[in-house]
Amino acid sequence: PGLGVVPRVESAPCKFEVAPSLGVEEGTDYVCGNLVVYESRVSQLRVIRLHYIQFKKAATPAQNAAIYLDGGPGGDGEGIVSYANFLGPSFLQGLMTSGDFLVIGQRGTGLSKPFLDCQTADCSDFAAIADLRSYNTESNADDVDELRSTLGYETLDLYGISYGSRLGLEVLRRHGDHLRSATIEGLVPSQVVWPAAVPASFYSALTGLNTSCAAAGECGTLYGDLTAKFTTGVDALNANPAPVTTSQGEFELDGYTYAYLLFQMFYSKSTFPYLPLMISDLAVRRTDRIGNVLEAILGNSGGSGISTGLYNGVVCSELFNPPNPSAFDDANADVPAAIRDLFAGNWFGMLETCANYPKTDPVLQTQLQQPVVSSVRSFVSSGRLDPITPPSFGVIAAASLSDSFHVIHENSGHGATLQSDCGQRNLFAFLADPSTPIDTSCAATISGDFIIGSNFVARPVPVARIRAELRLAPIPPFMRRKI
Length: 483
Description:
Blueprint: E1 8-11, E2 30-38, E3 47-55, E4 64-69, H1 78-87, H2 89-95, E5 100-104, H3 137-151, E6 155-161, H4 163-175, E7 179-185, H5 198-215, H6 218-223, H7 226-239, E8 242-246, E9 249-253, H8 255-265, H9 275-282, H10 291-297, H11 308-318, H12 327-331, H13 337-354, H14 362-368, E10 378-383, H15 391-398, E11 404-409, H16 421-432, H17 463-471, H18 477-482
Helix pairs in contact: 1-17, 3-4, 5-13, 7-8, 7-9, 10-17, 11-13
């Protein structure tokens, strides 16, 4: 009572930053608003407001729209708009190939109300104003469909990266009859306890880099075994941290910080040319050539507006409720102990965080962990060097999507379709006509463009692009805290 019609949309000043260089005007080419939904669709006691932006392809209402689902969990959606600002109008037009383009700030995230920016591990500081059990993937999926119906679209083209892929899978499960297609990448399959596999996922990226460098001829000859050099560097820096100089001053780099910085660098393809040089230099504690590269990463952890409330709500309720006691050991059975131990603290830290966190119904948890079965046309994309959602996750997710195809983009990271001209062409071609097979052969030929020491000085670090790519892929809170 007193809550009005639910769901509904309300006009609102735009919280997304749209650059003038995109050549679009608010009110004409795009509008923003708030989607008003029940916090709990069962109790219907409170409403919450989810901020969205709607880019309009034409003056007349479209019947279809593409919608971007951010990662995290807990990303606010700003990353994709920021990336469009960086790349320019042609990129935005590509996203609007099939109709309008939408971005929604998921429940609990920074542009929506409430923003669950919890200051305590169990989010008890929000317990009086939020039913924390309602901030989960099921509710998020229903929010997406209610935005579709309330704005008057018959169908959507889903586009989700990282947790956005997990959310996209849930929309496929619950609302597949309202979908024209799905592009999901950086796959988080519903049946995989991905936090347990962080060491294995990182090791997949590291060995993939080693293989790619070795295949590049001079890179392999000059830098040798990058996997071995990485662990050598971690040990050396933990024993004796090395000074690194940036424009902001000097700091001491220890081995653990190095490992977590490299983990984040694997998210962004634009850092890849520098990685063999950096790993080789740090194996002997040499830091004079890496300050500019690290400066592009430091303080830009990708997703400063991440919602710890939504993150913990999803991870604790859906994966740690409780997890299988052997999950960590099972996921990392083939990972060298030195690398497994670097990241083990994240798993055991989440076990502690989730012990007292309000959780969803165990029945719902079981339902959410079942493989998603769908016949909707789906483009499954992976980056070969993705450090948190490796190509093997894409294989798992695609197995139960009967009308899907899986593309592995070589020398690409987290969110591979956005990191190269090839990836963008594949994405835009699929959005234009999901029913027609597309030529994705370019994905196998994407180069790492590795820097050899002799041409290092002549290659400026693409700081703006690295930071734009990192904003697209919010890293988990436990990683941000380490950095």
